[in-house]
């Protein structure tokens, strides 16, 4: 059964580790992530962007697939199904469809409007037992066509949004989505520290986990980050493994054209990536 992400992240914050949010794109992605979490006895959050939800045939399709796998694959570790960077309407759709967690990304609204809409969605989510994430300060890079500049959130605005009753908070601290450019300045630990001082026990979320060096990840966790989003890294690993299979001509040998065979190396690459991240985040054995 899907669970809200609140309890797993409160435990992570208290225990000084982080739970990974791994975004899903299809059945292989979902199965690889769930099986790895189960094998490693780790809690896990499945992230679904609006674009990925549409691609997979709608939010209800995603809920049906994930719930089916939890049952048929005997997944017993805590799993949250989370809308990633949801707009106002998508949040309501996911609450209705059976997600167990949502993120309302109101970072592009003026702060007053972000506050107003967040307040409303906190009430709607909590009424149905879902957890809710909010974002302050746009996170750089591009995700599903939404381009933001890397910026650092204002700690006072973070405190204001935290006080609305959100369960965890994403704050820009110089992190960006996608691959990091060579001239990236790194995370602003000064900003993160200032945010945590004002928001206390509230779990903080680090978006754009792909390519952030391990020492920076560990330092961020020590300063209150309890949820780390990983998306691009699984995509890169899947693409490289699939490319290798085709380039080696394996699809032309025997029944190598079988889609289950073509997708197998990519699925294994996702598993390896998820395992590596769970080790780095410290969530193994914490289910
Ligand atoms: Zn993000």
Automatic annotation (TrEMBL):
Species of provenance: Candidatus Eisenbergiella stercorigallinarum
Residues bound to Zn(2+) 2: 105, 135
InterPro entries: Aldolase_TIM, Class_II_FBP_aldolase, FBA_II, Fruc_bis_ald_class-2
GO molecular function, one term: fructose-bisphosphate aldolase activity
Name this protein carries in UniProt: Class II fructose-1,6-bisphosphate aldolase
Gene Ontology BP term (one): glycolytic process
UniProt keyword annotations, A-Z: Lyase, Metal-binding, Zinc
Gene this chain is encoded by: fba
Entry binding sites for dihydroxyacetone phosphate: 178, 208-210, 229-232
Lineage: Bacteria, Bacillati, Bacillota, Clostridia, Lachnospirales
One Pfam family linked to the record: F_bP_aldolase
